[in-house]
Every structure is written in C-alpha cells, then in structure tokens.
Design goal:
Helices cover 14% and strands 30% of the residues. 49% of the residues are buried. It holds the Pfam family Mycop_pep_DUF31.
Length: 657
C-alpha cells in the first residue's frame, strides 16, 4: 500500500500520494470553488491558512486588476449560515496586484471562518458598494480559511509545541515568487510537524486486542436523543413562539461514566446512570436542573427569553445483540445488524411518525427511566478571572458569553426493579437491562484493572480515566521534564459510536479495513485548541473553546457519533469524540476525527489552566478549577431534597463524591 502523507488545513485536506494531490472539503460542506462570480466580481483566497503576524491575522483576497485602487470590506462568520454571528472588517485598499490585505485581530486560533460577503467601494468614504458578492445566497460556493495556532517561539523547536502555529513565517509581499516561497515554507513547516511522531512506551502484556477494545466500547455506549421544546421565536413571525416538540434533535452518542445505586445499596429499587456526551450534543437539554440551583449554575439554564424551554422526553438506544464489530472498507456500509433499538420514555405520539421508517421505536412511558438531569457541563469551570480571560469578547457576539469544553454529564434515574420485572416478559427490555448491566460491569472492571497494575498516563487511583494528558507530556519534555510512567504517544485511539448513515443511526467503528495506520497516533500537527460551542443550553449563548483536542487518522465517523468514548491500546479512556473532518460522504472513515481530552495537567496561556473534567478536587494540581463532575455532584447531593442526595456514593467515589 502507498504510504500517504496528510497535510492538514481547516476546511481542506491535502492528501498527497507521490506527486498527485487530491483536495477534500471537510465538515460535510459542499465542494468549494476558490473563485466565485457575482456582478462581475471575481474573488479568490490567496491563502487558505492565516498565520498570526504582529497581532493580526491578515486575510488576503484577490479581486482582480480591474479593482486596483478601490476599497473593500469583508463579512466573516464561523458558520456559513445567517444565524451565525458575523464580523465586519474595516475597509482595505486593493493593491497594484489586485489584492487586498484585511487585518483581523480577534479571531480564534485554530478555527475555521467563512467569507460570507465581499463589498467593493469606488472610494474609501463610500457607504454603498459598487459590487458585492454574497456567499450566503449560494451554499454551493464558499470561501473558507483557517487561522493557524500561535507558537510563541520564533524558530521551530526540535519537538513541536502542542497546538503550535506558524507565526514565525512572515506574510510575503504579493508577487508570485514571494507567494510561492511562502507556501513552500508553510508546507515545509507542516511536513516537519507531521514527521515528528514520538514513539509510544510499551507494555505488551497489558495491551488489549482490537476486538476487546471495540467490545468494551459497545458495552459502554448508548445512542441518545433529545425531544425538546425550545420556546424560541419563529424567524418568519416574531410574534409566534415554537411550543412544539422537536424530536431527536440532536441525536448523538453517550457512554456510562459512572453509576450509583440508591443509598449505595447494590440491586436496590433505583439506579442512577451518569452518562457522558459532548456539550454540543447536550445543547438542547434545556433547564434540566432544579431552578433553585440557578444562582450556583446560571450557565446551565436558559435566559429569560427562553425560560419555558424544556426536555419533553428522551430516547435511549442500544445496539442489537449480534452487531458486527469487524472492520469494513471505508465507503461501504454495515448491514441492518448494526441498526439500533430505541426506548422512549413517553407514550406513542404522532410527533415521532416520521422516525418510524428508520428507527425501531419502543415507547415505554415515564415509569422506567427519567429525563436527563444536568450534573456537569464544561462551561465556565474556572474562577471568574480565568473564565473571563478565555472568553473571546470580540469574536463571540452572543449576548451571553462563556468558555466551554465539549463535555457534559447527566443523570438518568432508572426504576431498576420495575425494569427487571418487565424484562421477564419483554425481550427488548431484557436487552436494555442486559446492556445497562454490561456498562456497569465495564466500569467495575476498569476500577480494579487500573488500580492493580501501573499503566502509562494513569496514577493508579480509583478514577479509571486518563490522569496525565499527552499534550502536557510533550510540553514537559520540551522543558526537560520526563516521567517514566508517562508516555508521549499511543499506538491506537479506538472509537465506536452511532453515526447517522443513509438516514439511519448505526453502530460504527474507526480504523476501516485496509487502513495504513501509523505506528503511533500523535504527530506534531495532531493537537489543537478546543472549538467554540454554539448555543449550549440556550439559543443566544456561545462558548469560546479551551483545552487541548487531538486528531486521529482513519476516524471520520459521521454526525451522530459525537460524544463517543475514546480509549487507547490499554483500554484506558482518554477522551471524547467531538470533531470530524468530512467530505460529506457519511461512509467515508478515511479522514481524521478529533477528540477532546478529559484532563489537562499543565497551565497553557492559550488553552487555559490545568483541569480535570471528571475530578477537579485536587487543588494542588487544579487550583483554578471550581466545577467538574465530582465537584458538582458533591454540591448537588448536599442540597436539601436534591434528586442526587441518595446517589452520591458512586462506583468511582464509593465513599461519596
């Protein structure tokens, strides 16, 4: 098989095989045309990647020699939709080369932006453009670019800084030779990063097989769907409020993080499942917490305009008994054996009629499991000063601004004895009961396993999740610090979730058949800053991203897989699947997927303070963190009449959170 070299951009992957280059647009967007026309206005990007130079990202647009000496301004958006907040540039003069350089000083690094409008003015003082190009009016044509992540060093370090950028490569004067030389430097820098791939430390006796890895993920995972009422104004009629249930919006993947029997008594009548998913999957879990806690957790509630928004019902889905976990070739599909069985905690309703064709629905009413109740969403998790430092005030134009990492934990109360009783006469409920038992058993096994032996990047405590993240290890190595129990890399990042393929949500895995998988997962271009989260738990809220994420080759599971658990070759959970580079083909797994790390053990000026999303109680390691799964659960369980009061003694925290 030919070895492929992938040079990453946002919105564009350049996959080089010998001397042939193939361009693939990511994020499910239509194929991009670099030159577009409207009113005789030709516009093209000089570069699809912008470096930070003297505090600015300089967007260069070629608008042709016919516009030399004129002025232009640009509208940018983080998404190519009218609902996405926009940024308007100041006017810039078109040079003698027909190129205008427009500086932007407050863009997120490592982010994708879309040019949604270009206006040409005959004079700097004109208010009415002589020519315009509106990209929102034609979704088949897009101009998009990526801001490179900043790197503090002015020369490349021997070991690339995690998430480092290319600001030491100065923007050239715009003649052809300089542009070619500049692109060559960018390419060389990317190749240098891509070629830096430190070896993983190995203990073969503790590694698990591929089949065991995917079986573990299957046993631990659920497909989840939210049926909510958002109470937002109709965009076509401002006097009309939507009071209808929006079914299965969104659907995603969740996994059992922890669980608790009522009062810590095993096999009691009630059981709390603590399920983890992405914050963007949980975004429509409106007001899923007692209102009396709003002072403590304002970010978990809608603002007044949307105060009636709520979850109406919830869907919990599981794989079929004999789902296929074997690798298949990218571009092909699993059969119906990998479709799902859905359980909805409501009565049969016509609102779900459209879903019947693609989903096996079972309406079980409210008496088996509850709607989700919020425990933790990774929004504003630090003290106020550090939260505010990380909020992008300029680029975040929502009326409520937060910081966010793409992670959430919610509780579902299961009437366990009722479920057991009904499972004796209902084979589908029997499968649900067995799946819940397998998920709990997986956690119990992990607690014992990771305490018994020393595993790389785990501290042998009761929390069976990553203790020391890889980007922090890279940074420590650059400073001459190395821990013998910490590996800089992993050999595999196994991912399994429930993407929607051909309009049907199915069980799917990464690493398709025939993959040319690298020996080690991370290279110098793998790590990047967390992406912004749009509308988390409120229509008019936006969270600026923080923390480290990482790309994984051959892992572009399609939409619906968001929230999937990621484990390494030892079975250690290391992160949560949150980002996909897609060309719009829902069966193509050959591109990269990205995941969010569960922990960051060192402070980083750009990515934020040290934090642990599961347990941030260690004030020596995480002095600036105020909220995590454990911290929130402890506080909630201590409140009078709290629904979590009897469920604080969990599998992980046996003495109580």
């Amino acid at each position: 098989m030919i070895k492929k070299k992938t040079i990453l951009t946002t919105g564009l992957n350049i996959v080089a095989v010998t001397s042939v280059a193939t361009f693939v647009v990511s994020c499910g967007s239509p194929a991009e045309n670099l030159t577009s026309k409207e009113n005789n206005l030709n516009v093209s990007l000089v570069s699809k990647e912008l470096s930070l130079v003297d505090g600015n990202y300089n967007l260069e647009l070629n608008v042709g020699s016919e516009n030399i000496g004129k002025y232009l301004d640009v509208e940018l958006r983080s998404q190519p939709t009218e609902s996405s907040p926009s940024t308007i540039s100041t006017k810039a003069k078109v040079s003698s080369e027909g190129i205008a350089s427009i500086p932007f000083s407050h863009l997120d690094e490592g982010a994708t932006y879309y040019v949604t409008k270009v206006n040409i003015y005959n004079d700097e003082n004109d208010t009415k453009p002589s020519l315009s190009r509106d990209y929102l009016s034609n979704n088949l044509e897009q101009l998009q670019f990526r801001t490179l992540e900043n790197q503090s060093a002015t020369t490349p370090s021997p070991s690339p800084t995690p998430g480092g950028g290319d600001n030491h490569l100065q923007t050239p004067n715009f003649n052809q030779a300089d542009i070619i030389a500049h692109i060559k430097k960018l390419t060389e820098e990317k190749e240098r990063k891509a070629n830096y791939r430190p070896a993983s430390k190995e203990n073969k006796s503790l590694q698990i097989t591929e089949q065991d890895a995917y079986k573990k993920l299957e046993n631990r995972s659920f497909a989840i769907g939210f049926n909510s009422i958002d109470y937002v104004k109709d965009p076509n009629d401002g006097d009309k409020i939507n009071t209808s249930v929006v079914p299965f919006e969104p659907t995603g993947t969740g996994w059992l993080l922890d669980y608790a029997w009522k009062n810590g008594i095993r096999d009691s009548d009630e059981l709390m499942l603590y399920i983890a998913t992405n914050a963007h999957v949980y975004a429509r879990a409106f007001n899923a917490m007692d209102e009396k806690y709003k002072i403590k957790f304002p970010e978990y509630f809608t603002q007044d305009e949307q105060k009636q928004a709520k979850i109406d019902s919830f869907s919990l889905a599981i794989p079929k008994q004999n789902a296929n976990l074997n690798a298949i070739a990218s571009g092909t599909s699993y059969g119906t054996e990998n479709s799902l069985i859905y359980f909805l905690n409501t009565q049969k309703n016509s609102v779900f009629d459209l879903d019947k064709a693609n989903k096996e629905l079972h309406f079980v009413g409210k008496d088996l499991f509850s709607n989700p109740r919020t425990v933790f969403v990774a929004l504003n998790i630090f003290d106020n000063d550090d939260n505010n430092k990380l909020i992008d005030q300029y680029n975040n134009q929502a009326n409520r601004k937060l910081i966010g990492k793409d992670f959430a934990v919610f509780g579902i109360k299961v009437q366990y004895k009722k479920l057991m009783e009904k499972a004796t006469s209902d084979n589908n409920l029997k499968l649900l009961l067995e799946h819940i038992k397998k998920a709990m058993s997986s956690i119990d096994n992990d607690i014992d396993k990771f305490k018994k032996n020393q595993y790389y990047n785990h501290d042998q405590n009761d929390v069976p999740y990553l203790s020391f993240d890889y980007p922090s290890a890279w940074a420590d190595k650059n400073k001459g610090k190395e821990d013998p129990n910490v590996s800089l890399n992993i050999e595999r990042a196994y991912i399994l979730g429930f993407p929607t393929v051909s309009n049907r949500q199915m069980l799917w895995r990464n690493y398709p058949l025939g993959s040319n998988i690298p020996q080690d997962v991370f290279n110098g271009a793998s790590f990047f800053k967390g992406l912004p989260i749009d509308k988390p738990l409120d229509q008019n809220t936006k969270a600026s991203g923080f923390g480290f994420n990482a790309y994984v080759d051959y892992s572009s599971l399609y939409f619906g897989a968001s929230g999937s658990l990621v484990i390494n070759e030892y079975g250690l959970p290391i992160g949560i699947y949150s980002t996909v580079r897609s060309n719009g083909d829902d069966k193509n797994i050959n591109n990269q997927g990205g995941f969010t790390f569960l922990v960051q053990v060192r402070d980083d000026n750009e990515k934020g303070p040290a934090h642990n999303l599961i347990d941030g109680t260690d004030k020596v390691k995480f002095p600036k963190q105020e909220k995590s799964y454990r911290q929130n659960l402890k506080w909630l369980s201590e409140q009078d009449n709290s629904e979590f009061k009897d469920f604080a003694k969990t599998a992980i925290f046996k003495s109580g959170a």
